[in-house]
Amino acid sequence: MQEMELLKQRLLQAVDEHQEELLGLVSSLIQIPSENPPKDSTDVTHFVYNYLKKNDIEMEIHEASPKMYNLVGKIGSPEGKKLIYCGHTDVVPAGDLSKWDFPPFSGEIVDGWMLGRGASDMKAGLGGIMFAAVLLKRLNVELPGELVLAIVPDEETGGEDGVPWLLENNLIHGDGSMIAEPSSPNHPTLAQKGSCWFKLTVTGVPGHGSLSPLEGVNAITDAIRAIAEIRKVYELEIEPPEEVKEILRVSNDYMRLHEREKYEGILEKISCNIGTIHGGTKSNVVPDSCTVEVDCRLPFGITQNEVYALIENKLDEMGIIYQIEPFGFRSNANFTSPNDPVCRAIVDNITYVTNEEAYGVMQWASSDARHFRDYNIPVLQYGPAYLPSIHGYNEKVKTEDIIRCAKVYLLAAIDFLNEPAS
User: What keywords are annotated for this sequence in UniProt (predicted)?
Assistant: First the structure.
């Protein structure tokens, strides 16, 4: 135990001594635009590959589809346990540049804040896991197991070219995984709501606008009626299974403690966002088609298929002619036990580094975590972030959070890989 304590202190000191390298790495990642869409991870992949190779970490490059590259690197002993540290290289588009207070790909540090698109989601976390692996390699830390870096594209669109592609092609394996996605400083996320994205296409009958509503069937007005019915899924009372009630209780308590009372209850509800609507050709033609994109997030206790069945039954009763086509993020609610070794390794070392209470909570969104759980790999998410800025203008993260997370990544890898397999 004394030897392990000395190693941990050595690693913490190393992060402090090389923090400028860590921050410079994150800044460089932000300065490489990797917006998705479009699907092109070429430039950021080359940078990551060259940085890790320069630091003696051999990386395999796997092209899942044109210009969509996955990187897999390993350090330590392949004979022991395997821990996957995962991060995605893509970011959401910067949007209207005039609404930013600084260039979105600046990567500048101002008053203790790292600035730019991807600062919180999730190039600071990506830089942290890269830096952790480099320090372990540089300091010749003997690992009784294997730390696997899985650096992927295509997370922000819910695409299939990243984590699911690596898993399906048997290119990564693990006894546990940590994704460096944004989280609260002391509260990693160990459960996610399900995701049910679908496109509703309503079909009508064209006619002359001057005769509407006597002539034709208006697809837009039918879509409006359908939308009103679909939004009622939020009102459903859903009973969660016993096995997740404690996670829900802790997560709701967390929201109250952190002044998020207005969101209380969302974990047990089907959220419903009408994201886009397109229909018609011109004002004097009865529209014969209208397409609506919907994002529902599902609590424990209901599945995607059950939601589709509920919606379809209602629309059928209303006599609407429609088609539902799933797309994007699709999953049922999923979780990892807080008692799993990978969760304990992260949570215990947050407390070790910060001297503050840490515990896992549930996330109301979705992520790549669902794919790991599909393959029976326990997983949680922990990363530096200023949560209000994610996917918005003026995205940023505190530099102290970047440094803290890198320390946790290092120590958690040591604890997890040194613990005997169960």
Answer: Cobalt, Hydrolase, Metal-binding, Zinc
Contact 294, 277 (CB under 8 A): no
Residue tagged 């304590």 (tokens): 5
The CATH number assigned to the domain holding 79 equals: 3.40.630.10
pLDDT digits (tens, 9 = 90+) for 94-131: 999 999 999 999 999 999 999 999 999 999 999 999 99
What is the maximal distance between C-alpha atoms in the chain? Answer: 86
Q: What is the arrangement of strands in the sheet containing 109-110, beginning at the earlier edge strand?
A: 109-110, 113-115, 396-398
Concatenated DSSP letters of 149-189:
EEEES-TTTT-SSSHHHHHHTT----SEEEE----BTTB-E
> What pTM was computed for the model?
0.91
Q: Which residue has the tokens 């009630």?
A: 245
Can you tell me the distance from the alpha carbon of 48 to that of 127, in angstroms, rounded to the nearest whole number? 9
Is residue 254 domain-shared with residue 327, that is, in the same domain? yes
- Total domain count, the chain: 2
Q: What angle do CA 13, 143, 180 make, to 5 degrees?
A: 65
Q: Range of 43's domain?
A: 2-192+333-418
Model confidence over 229-240: pLDDT tens digits? Answer: 999 999 999 999
C-alpha dihedral (147, 359, 188, 113), degrees to nearest 10: -110
pLDDT the model gives residue 420: 84
User: What span, in angstroms and rounded, lies between the C-alpha atoms of 117 and 367?
Assistant: 18
The count of residues in the chain is: 422
Question: What's the CATH number where 220 sits?
Answer: 3.30.70.360
Can you say whether the dihedral through the CA atoms of 71, 184, 93, 115 is positive or negative?
A: negative
Quick: pLDDT tens for 405-421: 999 999 999 999 998 87
Q: What gap in Å lies between CA 217 and CA 206, rounded to an integer? A: 7
User: Residue 352: helix, strand or coil by DSSP?
Assistant: helix
